[in-house]
Automatic annotation (TrEMBL):
The lineage of its organism: Bacteria, Pseudomonadati, Pseudomonadota, Alphaproteobacteria, Hyphomicrobiales. Residues 439-458 are annotated as: Disordered. This is Uncharacterized protein. Residues 449-458 have a biased composition (Acidic residues). InterPro entries: DUF6638.
Amino acid sequence: MMRLVRHGLMFGNLVEVTSPSMVSRYNRALEHLTGKTTQLEEFHIDISGFSPEIGDELDDPNYLNPHGCNRLFIVLSTAQKTAPLLNAHFSFSRTVLRRYIDQNEEQLFALTLHDAVVGELLNTVYTIRSPLDLFDIRQIDIEADTVGAHVEASEELSSKIHAFMSEPDGWWDDVLISEMIELSKHTGDIIRTPLKLETQSFEEGNFHTSHYGGLYVFRDVKRTACIASRNVDIVSDLPVKYVLTLQDRKAIATYLTRNGLIEAIHDVLGTDAIDILNQKLDFIAIDLAASLGEDLSDISRRDLRNLKRKYHSDLPEAYHALESAVRRMAAGRKVRWPDPDDPAFFYLFRSSDHSDKMLVNRLLAELTPLDFRQLFICHKDAFYDHYRTWSEPKKTFVAQFLAEEYMVDKAGTRRELFGAEPGMQEDYLDYGFGQDMGPWGAIPKTRDDDDDDEDDDD
């Protein structure tokens, strides 16, 4: 796995914690939340404040995520907002944390100048004892304050200031004035710099969880479903219309199509789809060549064509069906879609444009594991699991390909493969000139190419 780390494909974009003051601040926060501390003098943290080095030190990768539910977080700096979320058990967790930091960035910036902010992603479920518990997770509340309770003290001071200003005898209440002075020593000037972090709520309908081997929960669609990566026995009697596993390929294809969740790449991109599908063919061929011991270092396009010719009859069914579809596209002929049970079927599709685009593309990535690029982008945990089983030649090729072809333009590659990333309605602005428009034209939006670099996701 160190090969991936060196290329920035694992533990990439984490925030460094190296100064003694920040380490001390983190330790106070860690002890406040968990009763534990670290002896490390420097480490890295993700968006939630989780450190893989501290996880190793404590022999507890879930030290900020007890029971894989209601994730705790530590914010040392708002710079954490672009970091990934490691050890994610729910696909919505990073999105919720990112939105929370974005919406409270000014307050968090002011608070973290003096202390760490600690909090929790709360829902009504505290322990997952059965798959049914997952369906009780709907609203995620975030509560946060500094370790020194600056926000709570600020609210108390605000209340006393109100009493001082409104009560007739407030000006002569020496006890009240003394309390205000003591609180202001702790909070600073809350008139000029208000310290306020209200509890915020986020609704989550459709999501993926790593619990029970991986489950995709679709509740906010016309036809509800739970799709399990593994044995269906553990997900019987769930409050959904369909309970499926990844082996139910025809049923999954029907389900995704009827709900309008997927689209054929060729129908959307036309002839531009050919290049994307040809790359998928390359990935399948690479898998076979690597398993047969071929040297894939510095492989050229010509070398790859020669490998395809050499092993053409040995390539899997998915390759031949996909190759047939690409040939018909290139010739301008009507494409004969393979049956959903055909291994090539899901390679020809991507998520349609809706708010759960990344969730559906994650599901498609599990159904098309030989497309290692989509697996890496959309489902990193599954990618790492597969990577551990690959031969050394394939590991070398994949790491080099992703570093040279994907990491140099992540946003551009995602846009080419999956289309525009869905915006959140809460982020749209309207000042009376139309959505995202100001009096002098479109309101510029900040870009963050690292938003989806890690899966995402508690």
